[in-house]
Structures are given as structure tokens and as C-alpha cells.
Amino acid sequence: MPAARPRLLYVTDLAYQAGGRRYCDEDIFLTARLRAHFDLALCHPLDAVSLMDGYDAVVVRNSGPVLGYQKEYEAFRTRALSSGTRVYNPLTGKADMAGKQYLLDLGAAGFPVIPTVDRAADLHRLPPAERYVVKPKAGADSLGLRIVPAARVAECAVGDVLIQPCVDFAYEVSFYFVDDDFQYALYAPDPRRRWELQPYAATDADLEFARRFIGWNGLGHGIQRVDACRAPDGGLLLVELEDLNPYLSLDALTDDAQDAFVTALTASLSRYVRRALGSPA
After folding, report:
1. pLDDT, tens digit, 9 for 90 and up, residues 111-122
2. Is the Cα dihedral 65, 242, 218, 257 positive or negative?
3. CA within 13 Å, CB half, 251
């Protein structure tokens, strides 16, 4: 008899409304392709704890910012870790998966990161600017983000927040990885239109920049997106390292590039699940 196919619980919020993007379309596309290789069921993130038993792995995809359901997300993490449930991406990520403290840690370690502090007493460490970004440490998808004038930044720097100068960058660019392998890059030529993306021809220097953060995170398996901006001096600065549920902007790719990504994701999931089950990869 043929070996049973791996069973995946695919976590997504198909109704989530994101500015400039349709998360549901991406997950409908991906699950339609993954069904050729896995037995697969979809569920809302609020239902993951009650449904996760009986699956070989839980795949967390476009599940929305956890700030909106922090208590339930923590319950999911606790249950998965205590029961040994295999989660993709694995729950060992040190970047957005664990909040945005990593921006402070990486900056202190000398990594090329947008200057960031988390309290008013440290504002003097930031380059002077006319405007500053203030956002929650646990935020995502611009949830809770505010842009405030310099005269008001101190009064807004309260609670669990990060403060950054508004950088006059040329454009934003994202590098997408499956496991440790680079897949594609996209950029927004107009900084005012973050999600109007086009394919970007990454240079060797660009990939060296992005791989520094992939290597630092040490995730091993999963999908990661390195978001950066091109600073006035021509260098790249990290904006975000998304290792929980990065939106992939697959609709900006050619059909061939989409196929290549799906092939890489399928192979990664197969290796991850079959090794965990003690089967040949």
C-alpha cells in the first residue's frame, strides 16, 4: 500500500482585510497547489488549538496580526510546544515571531538596521528628524503605527513601543526565503505606494545583506521575508524580519516564478514533516 500522505492544518484568516492586498487570494492559490501533495484542511487562527491534534504539522500562513488575538496566540504556542506539535514556521523564530525587540538587539550588535529605541530617555540616540515613527513592539501590518512630529515624539513614546526616525529612503525592497534559500525579491519604486510591487533584480551585495539576517535568525525551516529600505547613502537598512506569517505578494510574480516558489515550499514542507515523522525525506 502507498504511504499515507502527510496531513496539514493550514491556519489562515480568509476574511482579514489588509490595505492594498488580498490575503485570501494568496492562501486559496497556495492551498490549491499544496493539495496535490498533502491532505490539507484550513482553519481560522482562533480555531487552531481545538483542531490541531491529528495533523502531522500546522502551517501558519496569512493569519493576521496576533496583536488582535494575543491571548489565543499565546495559548496556541503553549499548546504546540507542550504537545510537540510541528509548526511551520517553527516557533523558535527570534524576529517578528517574538515581537520587535530584535530591532533593538540587532542595532546594538552593529547590524544595519533602521535606528530604533524603545523609550523617551533614549531619543538622543536617534538621528535628528522632523518626524518619527512610533509603533507597538507587538504590532504588525502597520497596526497601531503613528507618525508624529519631533515636538510630540517624547509624549508619544510611552508603553511597549518602538521609536524610529522617518528615513528619507529611495524605495523599500523585500527578499523572500524558503528555509535558507533565496527565492525572489520585490520592491516598491514609489515609497508612497508600499504594496505596488515589481520584481527586483537582487545584487550579490543585496543578498549578502539579506542572508546576514536569515543566518542570525537560524530558523532552519520555513518562509521568511527580509524587508529593507535603500537609505540616502545607498546602503540597505533592515525595516523588518518577518518570520511568523509573511505575506508573499505572489500576484506580483510571473507564472514561472510562482511555480518555482510553490516547488520550493512543497519540498521544504515535505522534508520538515517527513523527517519529524522519521520517514525518508
Report:
1. 999 999 998 888
2. positive
3. 13
